[in-house]
Amino acid sequence: MAFMSLIVCPSIASAQKPDAPGVGSNMITNFKGKLVSFKRGILVVTTDEGTQMNVALPDDIASFVFVAEAKPAFLQRGMFVRFSGSFNQAGMAQSPIRKVEIFQPVAGKLNGHQREAFVPGIYPVNRPKAGEPPPQVADVKVVGNIMGMDASGVMGVMIGKQPLQVPLAPDVRLELRFNNMSLAEEGDSVSVAGFYQAGDETNVKASRITITTSRVYGEATEGNSKSTRKRTRSSRKKTDDADTGNGENPDTAP
Questions:
Q1: Residues 185, 213: contact at Cβ < 8 Å?
Q2: Quick check: 38 and 44 in contact, CB under 8 A?
Q3: Mean pLDDT to the nearest integer, 219-245
Q4: Interatomic CA distance for residues 94 and 139, integer angstroms
Q5: Long-range pairs of 235-238 with CB within 8 A, sequence gap ≥ 24
Q6: More confident of the two residues 6 and 183
Q7: 125-137 as b/e, with b when 16 or more CB fall inside 10 Å?
Q8: Is the pLDDT of residue 30 over 50?
Q9: CA distance 142 to 118
Q10: Closest residue by Cα to residue 250 from 56, 53, 37, 67
Q11: What is the average pLDDT score of the chain?
Q12: Which residue from 192, 191, 206 is spatially nearest to 26, judged by alpha carbons?
């Protein structure tokens, strides 16, 4: 099957945005702090000013993300990845890929833009006009599963039933972007955007949460990279709870 025939051209759909928070008694807030705990869909965060905040997860789970750096040793067969690059019609990358994001599937309905981030496929950055022939080389976003990686730094990726060989740059940046709490730990940095009821500023409904850490997963100097990967595999069992807020993270729960 030709590479270009796999490119998905999503239909254009209009969506009406809900009323922005800040109307009436809702007050907009943005703050940064450190993670204290997570239980039953509520993050407890101590702000940089020392105030303890109770933060409810966003309704859109894609707006809740844990971000960390990873090394090639962390990669495993079957992991979900996404990246952008230029490919010809034969599916050959025109240059090594410089950034790869590692993610986990999310539950619930996804809109068109979100599908391009979570559903395996090849998505054009610039859609060709109707009637135009496919370009010889196209800039695309690729979402798929890791098949493996050889000693030369070529990563095999499966997109549905289509395999793809992807050369990685020697200094490729691997970034974990998990939409759950499976790897988060107490003390991680938290950035929150959301709103609260006037007079109740310590109880926040988030519209976006980003958790970051200085930990590097798969780094040889960790000394526990194997246990870290094992923990990642075992954490998949609690991913659904973390996605919906019905469970707790044993690393951060009180």
A1: yes
A2: yes
A3: 48
A4: 10
A5: 235/182, 235/183, 236/104, 236/182, 238/182
A6: 183
A7: eeeeeeeeeeeee
A8: yes
A9: 10
A10: 37
A11: 82
A12: 206
First and final C-alpha spacing in the chain: 53
Contact 143, 117 (CB under 8 A): yes
Fold type of domain 29-67+178-244: OB fold (Dihydrolipoamide Acetyltransferase, E2P) (2.40.50)
- Can you tell me which residue has the tokens 């990246």? 83
Q: How confident is the model at residue 6 (pLDDT cuts 50, 70, 90)?
A: low
CA dist 70 and 149 (Å) reads: 15
Confidence of residue 94 (pLDDT cuts 50, 70, 90): very high
Torsion of CA 154, 159, 161, 167, to 10 degrees: -10
H-helix or E-strand spanning residue 228? helix 225-235
Residue 66 near residue 177, CB atoms below 8 Å: yes
Under DSSP, is residue 143 helix (H, G, I), strand (E, B) or coil?
strand
Q: Looking at the whole model, is its pTM more than 0.85? A: no
For the chain, give every domain's residue range: 3-10+69-175, 29-67+178-244
